[in-house]
Amino acid sequence: MVIIIGAGPAGLSLAYALSKAGEEVQIFEASPEVGGLSRSLSLWGRKVEIGPHYLVQDLTPRIQELLQYSMGDEYEVYHRHSHMVVQGLFFNYPPGILEILKKSGPFNSLVFVCSLLWEKLFPQAYRPNAESFMVSKMGKALYLRFFRTYNEKLWGVSCARISEEYAQTLIGLGKRGASFWKMLANNLRKKQARFRTCLYPHGGFGNLCKKLADALSHQGVRLHLSAAIQDIVVEGGKVRGIRLADGSFYPCESIFTTIPLLKLVTLLPNTPSSLFGKDKGMTFRNLTLVYLNVHIEGFPQDQCLYMASPEIKAARITNFNHFTTNVYPTTILLLEYWTGDEEALWHYKEKELLDQAKKDIQTAELCTHIEILDCHVLKIQRAFPVPDTSFPAARKVVTDYLATVQELYLVGRNNSGVFNFGVENTFEECFRQAEDYLGRRPKPKAPTLSSLTSIIS
Ligand SMILES: Cc1cc2nc3c(=O)[nH]c(=O)nc-3n(C[C@H](O)[C@H](O)[C@H](O)COP(=O)(O)OP(=O)(O)OC[C@H]3O[C@@H](n4cnc5c(N)ncnc54)[C@H](O)[C@@H]3O)c2cc1C
Question: Any bridge partners for residue 231, and if so which?
């Protein structure tokens, strides 16, 4: 018996992979519905996500199979449009070098190229952080214009305190990548094209999770909702089962967990006191999501706009109408505000948030007319850990301890340690982990003739 903690995309896809191979699986989910951070909200007669979610059309065969299993052909194909808005100029997101040079004009382009040459001729002393990494790759001028403001808005700390691993995964260049020239070559080969055609499940990603959960239940996977795990029972260094708040105990051979690491350590017995306390060197960002139901004219065709200018407080603006060809009488926009506990914006009331959202839309000049009919606010505390330079080491202390508990496996976004870990990565990683797990298990015995006879009779 395998127990999975959490029924988000990770828990569900793992249950799919394990149960398909004949494992007995039970999923425990704290909330009354499945989907985790990919669940959908019902707003103004429609379903929308907690933030935009993308699934590229060019899926691996395993993900295609999962999609077919859960949704059949109930999804739409759409062309992804997203731009970074930098002081009134729109650049594809992520921006391409050719486009930057074309749109920035001859003077700025010359500054970018000179700054890069300067960096190559007189390289700064390298420090293992995002700022040093980006400057070494693309020169200071490009870094300042396209990377610094946006990332400092997201994470609330200077890029000199953000880890270089984060910068590497964000722009897809390894430590030794040839940077500017490699990006230019990618541009010319149109390498970004793969990310441009995407799939949107009918009814949204929450519906995909729901349909997957329904199909799994029919296949014999037991799904316990509103079932927050209180304790993980460990004996002789190996997991034995889980206990719920009502005291009920469920035995198992292995546990896969998708919940945040620091929450997980509180469920284990005898966790060393050194692992409790003030976040063990990790800091977290809160998310305030401001949904607006609007009549709007002249808004760009994008699903998402990334706001890189410091005078606009929202980090990203999503237009949910642009994920589907369905026609709705109104448009739903989402403005995301990323903050720390101590920032005033995190404590804003709905009226103040509505005023801030209006101000941001006006300052960014994103439409010719807007009438706001209604507003809905959702706050998620500790939504994302900050990828600062202390994060990898702080995370390692916790994961090293968890690795001492046998048959406890970490999966999903909360445990990946990677920051642009989308739904697609989640599915693939879960399939890989299921494969590794099944590979270590003794193969089920082939049925004997007598057992076959008893099955037939
Ligand atoms: C604003 C925003 C934007 C995003 N944008 C994108 C995007 O563009 N593309 C993309 O692919 N992804 C995006 N994501 C991330 C996406 O939501 C995650 O990748 C995905 O939900 C991760 O799935 P998961 O199953 O690993 O974790 P989660 O979705 O976090 O699921 C964990 C589950 O564990 C449950 N749980 C917690 N504690 C317990 C307990 N004690 N007992 C039982 N259950 C418990 C939780 O209730 C939750 O359901 C975004 C997320 C947000 C918030």
Answer: 243
Where b means 16+ CB within 10 Å and e means fewer, 130-157 reads bbbbbbbbbbbbbbebbbbbbbbbbbbb
Distance 290 CA to ligand 1 centre (A): 19
Is residue 35 within 8 Å of 209, Cβ to Cβ?
yes
Q: Is the CB of 14 under 6 A from ligand 1?
A: no
pLDDT in tens, 204-247: 999 999 999 999 999 999 999 999 999 999 999 999 999 999 99
**Residue 240 amino acid letter:** R
Instruction: Summarize pLDDT for 153-175 with one digit per residue, the tens.
Output: 999 999 999 998 888 877 665 55
The pLDDT, as a whole number, for residue 190 is 56
CATH number at residue 259: 3.50.50.60
Please report whether residue 374 resides in a domain: yes
Of the three residues 348, 364, 385, the one that is the final residue of a domain is: 385
Residues 217 and 364 grouped into a single domain: no
- C-alpha 325 – ligand 1 centre gap (Å): 26
Contact 321, 328 (CB under 8 A): yes
Q: What residue's CA is closest to ligand 1, atom 22? A: 413
Query: Looking at the domain assignment, is residue 196 inside a domain?
Result: no
